[in-house]
Every structure is written in structure tokens, then in C-alpha cells.
Amino acid sequence: WQTVQTLIYSNIMSRMPELDTEEIRDTFRLFDIRGDEKIEARQIGEVVRALGLNPTEAEIKKAGYDKQPDTRITFETFLPIYKDLAKNADKVKPEQFIDGFRVFDKDQNGTISAAELRHLLTSLGEKLKDEEVEQLLAGMDDIHGNINYEDLVRNIMSG
């Protein structure tokens, strides 16, 4: 069980950007149209997205920058904002997985067929082995052969 959880988590984390300061600075400079080592505050979202993150505007403001959009900021001001957003991006929320399962919830009742879930986990994306899927889903299906995916996600993420 722990192996399956570790596998799922490491697959997700391996997709997160791990950039050094110079790579971040180089990307920052691409948005510096004046050549004065500054960008406009309104560009923070564009720069962090170019660096592989996908924060909301609210997350950007929460990360510490809520100035006028045309205010120009230096790289030294930008870097802590980026690092805070990157750190928070590492915190995968159960709701993100649950939303993904909703796509396959034909009846919109919070469940997915165990057979369909087995198929998805063994044939799409980062494929799991049959034994891993069996271990992951053991005891999770109801008398109708369905799995409550919210319970499944919370069970996996709680360890």
C-alpha cells in the first residue's frame, strides 16, 4: 500500500519544475521589455506560468505581491514570490484528484466502476501494474462494484 502511494505521489512530484535561480532569472529577463532588469507587476502570472507553474491571480496576490499592475519590480522582488508559489504548488490537494475522477463519474454520484478504474490505472498515463491496482483498490468497492473516489483519494493521501 505504501509503495503504491509513494509511486503515485512521486509521479506527480516528478512533473513539478525544479529550476535553479539562473534559469528563473533568464525567464524573468525574457519579459523585461525595457532592458532595465524589471517587469511590470501584471506580468508576474505570465512569468511564473512560463516557469511551469499555474497559479491563480488570488494565489499570486497571497504570495506577497498586491501592487498596482503597472508597478515595475526587480528580480529580487520576484524571486521570493516565485519560490512561495512553487512551494505551494508542491502541496497537491485532494480536490484536484477528485475533480479528475468526476470526469469519469457518469452518474455524477461520487462513484466510479471498479472495473473502469482498474482499466484507467493500468492503461492511461503512468500505468500501474495489476498487482499495484489490486493493492490500491482492495476493500474499496461496494456491493455494486463501484468505488467512492473521494474516499479513495482521501485514503491514499492520508497514508
From TrEMBL:
Keywords: Calcium, Repeat. SMART domains: EFh. Residues 19-54, 92-127 form the EF-hand domain. GO terms for molecular function: calcium ion binding. SUPFAM superfamilies: EF-hand. PROSITE patterns: EF_HAND_1, EF_HAND_2. GO terms for cellular component: myosin II complex. This is EF-hand domain-containing protein. It comes from Macrostomum lignano.
